[in-house]
Every structure is written in structure tokens, then in C-alpha cells.
Amino acid sequence: MKLLVTGGAGFIGSNFIRYYLKENPNDSIVNLDKLTYAGNLENLKGLERDKRYKFTHGDITDFNFVDSLLKDVDAVINFAAESHVDRSIDDPSPFLNTNIIGTQLLLESSRRNKIHRFIQVSTDEVYGSLEPIGLFTERTALRPNSPYAASKASADLLTRAYFKTYNFPAIITRCSNNYGPYQFPEKLIPLFVTNALMDEPLPVYGDGLNIRDWLYVEDHCSAIDIVLKKGKEGEIYNIGGNTEKKNIEITDKILNILKKPLTLKKFVKDRPGHDRRYAIDSTKIKMELGWEPKYQFEDALRKTIQWYIDNKEWWERIKSGEYRKIVVSG
Ligand SMILES: NC(=O)c1ccc[n+]([C@@H]2O[C@H](COP(=O)([O-])OP(=O)(O)OC[C@H]3O[C@@H](n4cnc5c(N)ncnc54)[C@H](O)[C@@H]3O)[C@@H](O)[C@H]2O)c1
């Protein structure tokens, strides 16, 4: 099978490419990425000489270019997105352009090229915020609260419409918060780990009691691999780790593991529209497709922190802006 992976130079996309090629040695991947600030070819170091992998620099909103890539592709996995909530609050426009228009153009080109399977990688943020009890199921109403979440929800609706209108073989996955290697140090866990390693303050929003459901990135990758092979067209699959944690608990844990003082915690003004709680019910993907997460939170968090300790050069180059100078080829 030949896949087109979009956004493969980002956090989850790059982890997925490594995971997929390891698990599926006879398949090949074309990685289409615009290399925005979040795309980094250093995330794929070592794969350049692998004949099964090809990087292509481009934008999912460039219809003709995407169309030319899809001629002999079997399946598309769409990771490409503007993905940071705070940036969407500062300026929603690039989110609408890539996440909504880009997804529609990708769907349209995939439909015309008779792609056999299209996975839209979505997020639990489309469901909005939960009360202290209850879980998001695939039937929960969409109530996005940030421009980022609204753009992802819009892309989900377009994906559904392509299935209903054209019988196009699309599937949507909605995953909870990921963590692991190669995550851009603007997101909570890598930001706090790298700040702590530099003895800089850890900026905690509001009272720090917001709850997220955390999943190690490799477990997200294995779920997408299963959905690609066994998922049912037109369906939505929630993916989560059943690991609800308050932001403040994660902050304390990171400081404890790194043996840094709790005084590095700094409470800052809350994010507008900050969702209070997310929690995912993954029963459907477990029961229907047999997926199970492999990693426990405590172990995977330690593994992640160790990765940031061992790969200081990677995140220092990002924090200094040096990584943007890498030459784009192919
Ligand atoms: N990070 C999470 O916790 C999480 C959880 C659930 C779902 N998701 C979804 O998973 C996907 C990947 O998330 P991530 O955290 O890896 O994001 P990321 O920001 O690390 O990576 C996004 C990638 O998309 C590329 N990109 C952006 N605009 C593009 C365009 N117009 N054309 C081509 N490439 C473009 C970027 O260069 C980057 O490489 C996103 O769709 C996101 O909504 C993320």
C-alpha cells in the first residue's frame, strides 16, 4: 500500500511515519508538508535514505499540486493542520485556511483520484468542555470553543458530507491530548519539561485545575494504523488513554521527576474560552477494532522526559529558531 501522509513533519505525523514503516515494511509513504513553524525535517532524521519514504514540500491548499501527488496513492492520512489553540486565538485565519479549506481540497482531490481510504485526524476538542462527570462518545454533540476546535469540527463535517454525498471512503478519528518525542515545545508537556531543564518558570493557566485525557503518541499511531486497516467507512472513532490529569498534577510531576523546585510554577492569566475538562470514551475502537493503548501514563511521561533530556540539541535549536534554517529539499 502507498500512503500520502500530510503534515508528516509535525509531532504526530513524524511519529506516525516512523511507526508505520516499522510495522508495515512493504508499504511506502509520501510525506506532504508545508513546513510551517511546527514542521521540522529533523523529526524525520534517518529516514532520508529509506526508499519507502519520500518528502514533498507543499501545501494542502494547493489543489493542482496535491492532485499530481495522488495519482498512484491508495490512502490519505490528513495530519496537516494549524494545531495550537493559543495561536488560533491570536489569529484564526490560517486555521480556517489550512484546517477547513485545505481539508476540503484534499477530500476533493482524493475523491477524484478514487483514493480507497481517507483518514481525517481530528481531536476531542471538537466536543467542547465536559462537566465534572461523563465522557465524550462519538455521539456527543460538537460544541467547539476555540477557533482551532471550530476549524477542526468544520473539517469533520466536510469529511462526513463527502462520505454521505459521494460515498467517499472517509473515516474520522478524534484523539485526546498526545505527548511524546518531537512535540513542539509550545505545548504543555514539552514546554514545561524544557523550561524546567533551563530553570525557567512553568506558566500554568488560571488555577491549573483544567483536566485533559493524556495518550502517549505511539498509542495514537497504533490506533490510526488499525483504523486504516480495519475501520468502517463513514465512522468516527474516539481514541483516548483513560488518563485524566489536572494540568497542575502534570506540572508537579514534571518538576518532581526532574528534581526541580515547585517554586518554578508560575500561575498566569487564564486562556479565553479555556475548556475545563476533556475525557474520552474509547469503547468503540476497543470493542470493534481491538485497539488497546500499550503505555501507562507514569512510565510514558518518564520516557518522554528522558527523550527531551537526551535530545537537548533538538529543542534548543527550536527554542532559538535555528531549526528554521534547515535546507528544504525534495
Ligand atoms: N497534538 C495533539 O495532542 C493532538 C491531539 C488530537 C488530534 N491532533 C491532530 O493531529 C494532527 C497533528 O497534530 P500535531 O500535534 O502533530 O501538529 P503539529 O502542529 O506538530 O504539526 C502539523 C504539521 O502540519 C504541517 N502543515 C500545517 N499547515 C499545512 C498545510 N497547509 N499544508 C501542508 N502541511 C501543513 C506543519 O508544517 C506541521 O508539520 C492535527 O490535525 C491535530 O489537529 C493533535
Task: Annotate the secondary structure layout.
Elements: E1 2-6, H1 11-23, E2 28-33, E3 53-57, H2 63-69, E4 75-78, H3 85-90, H4 93-112, E5 117-123, H5 147-166, E6 170-175, E7 177-179, H6 188-197, E8 202-205, E9 211-216, H7 217-230, E10 236-239, E11 244-246, H8 247-257, E12 265-268, H9 283-289, H10 297-310, H11 312-320
Parallel strand pairs: 1-2, 1-4, 2-3, 4-5, 5-6, 6-10, 7-9, 8-12
Antiparallel strand pairs: 9-11
Helix pairs in contact: 1-7, 4-5, 6-8, 10-11
The structure holds nicotinamide-adenine-dinucleotide.
Structure description:
This protein is of the alpha/beta class. The chain has a domain at about 1-180 and about 215-240 and about 275-295: Rossmann fold (3-Layer(aba) Sandwich). It is built from eleven helices and twelve strands. It has helices at about 10-25, 65-70, 85-90, 95-110, 145-165, 190-195, 215-230, 245-255, 285-290, 295-310, 310-320, and strands at about 1-5, 30-35, 55, 75-80, 115-125, 170-175, 175-180, 200-205, 210-215, 235-240, 245, 265-270. It has a seven-stranded parallel beta sheet with strand order 3-2-1-4-5-6-10, sandwiched between helices. The longest helix is centred in the N-terminal third of the chain and has 20 residues, at about 95-110. The mean pLDDT is about 95.
Give a concise summary.
This protein is an alpha/beta fold and 330 residues long. It has a domain at 2-179 and 215-242 and 274-295: Rossmann fold. It is 40% helix and 17% strand.
Helix content: 25-40%
Structural class: alpha/beta
The global form is globular
Count of DSSP strands: 12
Please trace the helix and strand order, writing H or E for each element: EHEEHEHHEHEEHEEHEEHEHHH
What Rg, in angstroms, do the CA atoms define?
Answer: 19 Å
Return the CATH topology of the domain at 2-179 and 215-242 and 274-295.
Rossmann fold
Strand sequence of the main sheet, in spatial order?
3-2-1-4-5-6-10
The major pleated sheet works out as: 7 strands, parallel
Query: Which molecules are bound besides the chains?
Result: nicotinamide-adenine-dinucleotide
